[in-house]
Amino acid sequence: MDHSYRILSPRLLLRPLTEHDLEVIRTWPNHASTRIWFHDYQPIDIDRAVNDYERYRLNERDMMFVAVWMEQELAIGTASLSRIDLTMRTAELGKVYIGSPEAQGLSFGEEMVSALTAFGIGTLGLKQLELYVKVTNTRAIRVYMNCGYVHDRSYRHHRVKGATSSLIRMVYTVPRKRSIDASESQG
C-alpha cells in the first residue's frame, strides 16, 4: 500500500518504505545475527527487493515502515502491518526487526511494536492484531508480551528443504468496554 502515514515515538520516526530504502534494508536480513529469527528466510538480492517492493506498493492491505532513530538520523529497522482488514478490523504485525547493529540492544524493538500497535488501534481503528514468531526467539516474545500481546496458539512450520521450526501466534485484542450493570449504578 502506498501510504503517507508517519508515526512518532519518543526516539523514533516510523515512515513509509520507499524505493530508496531497498539497498539498505535488504542487507539487514542477510546478516546471520538477524536471519536466524526468520522462519522462512531466503537471501534477498536487489532484484528480489525491488520485486517485493513493487508487490507491496500494489497491495492495498499492507503498510511497510522504516524506523529512523531521530537523534542519529539513521534508518535502523523495519516494521509492517499486513493483511489489514478494515471491515473485520484486524491486521498482522510483522517484519519487526532492528537491522542496524548500532541500534541493537537499545529497546527500539519494543518502541516500534508499541508505536505500531497504537497506530493500528488509534488511527486505523483495528480491534485485533496478530503476529507469528519463532518459539526460540525469546527476546521478541518478551517484547511482544511487554506490549500487551498474549500467546494464542503454537504451530509447527514446515520449510521447503525439510527443516521445521515451531512458531507461536500472539494476539493483541483491544479490551471491551464494560457496561455498568443497572443494579450497580443504582447503588
From TrEMBL:
Keywords: Transferase. Signal peptide: none annotated. Residues 12-175 form the N-acetyltransferase domain. InterPro entries: Acyl_CoA_acyltransferase, GNAT_dom. It comes from the Bacteria. Pfam families: Acetyltransf_3 (PF13302). GO terms for molecular function: acyltransferase activity, transferring groups other than amino-acyl groups. This is Protein N-acetyltransferase, RimJ/RimL family. It comes from Paenibacillus aquistagni.
